[in-house]
Amino acid sequence: MTTFHSTFDPATLRQWDKLLGQVAAIAADHHDAVFASSLAAEDMLLLHAIVQAQAPIEVFTLDTGRLPAQTLGLIDTIAERYGVVVKAIKPDPAAVHEHVAQFGEFAFYESVDLRKACCAIRKVEPLRRTLQGHSAWLTGQRRGQSVTRVELAESEFDPVFGLQKYNPLALWTEEQVWAVIRALNIPYNPLHDQHYPSIGCDPCTRAVRPGEDARAGRWWWEQRTSKECGLHAGNLKAIDPQTV
Ligand code: SF4
């Protein structure tokens, strides 16, 4: 495992040390804690911390069936670099088939409701199924990512899925995330270098333009305040309960 090194910004170094302590404490408090990785830059950093802290936390990703090849490629990269198996959780094929047969392959562009229905089948139900029976989960969310995340807590009870939820990167800045990724040579999705700060399913993600916020490329045809897929539905309550 790479160790931290060099002339590093002291504030970021403190953040990193704190993160190592946080993941170790979460694993000690919850022997069944699981990490839901989107394989984004933040999640790669969090994975590195989990490995470095030797925290026995299982990692999974939601393989919606519409992820970019670059994202899926990280599963093999992680296995090679860290010896960690990322479990790819897939949606119920019958539910996907039924939805596509009824509404078409690209129904998510037609309305927020149809987009949420697709996310519910390909993401929310698989997540609910995976979290069932666990007492805690971790995410790589940050406050700075979106208007839907400005009040994100580092630790909170998740009322949607009924277990403790940890967002240990909540207070990290984008600059700090990338500083650590570069310093520790942490692997990341090559799409990040092509102006994709936030990466989801292929048809629902585009590159962002200068000055746009990090989530602007996700469901870009929708209002900013509706941009959660249901995995973090609790985030929307602070904005408008009707949007959950
Ligand atoms: S992000 Fe798009 S393709 Fe992926 S589950 Fe949601 S609506 Fe469907």
Descriptive keywords:
244 residues; binds iron/sulfur cluster; 6-stranded mixed beta sheet; 6 helices; 6 strands
Explain how this protein is built.
The active site is at 229 (nucleophile). This is Adenosine 5'-phosphosulfate reductase. Residues 34-207 form the Phosphoadenosine phosphosulphate reductase domain. There is one protein chain. This protein is an alpha/beta fold. Helix content is 36%, strand content 9%. The chain has one domain: HUPs (Rossmann fold). It has helices at residues 10-29, 41-52, 69-82, 93-103, 112-131, 174-184; strands spanning 34-36, 58-62, 86-89, 136-138, 155-158, 163-166. A six-stranded mixed β-sheet has the order 3-2-1-4-6-5. Mean pLDDT is 90; it is low at 238-244. Bound molecules: iron/sulfur cluster.
Concise summary:
Keywords: Cytoplasm, Iron, Iron-sulfur, Metal-binding, Oxidoreductase. The protein is an alpha/beta fold and 244 residues long.
Strand content: 5-15%
The rounded distance between the terminal residues' Cα atoms is 41 Å
Instruction: Give the C-alpha Rg.
Output: 17 Å
Described by its quaternary structure, the protein is: single chain
Q: Report the order of strands and helices.
A: HEHEHEHHEEEH
What is the count of distinct domains? Answer: 1
Helix content: 25-40%
Shape from CA axes? Answer: globular
Can you list the strand order of the major beta sheet? 3-2-1-4-6-5
CATH class: Alpha Beta
Please give the count of helices: 6
**Small-molecule components bound:** iron/sulfur cluster
CATH architecture: 3-Layer(aba) Sandwich
CATH topological fold name: Rossmann fold
Give the structural class. alpha/beta
> Total number of β-strand segments?
6
Per CATH, the superfamily is HUPs
Query: What's the main sheet like?
Result: 6 strands, mixed
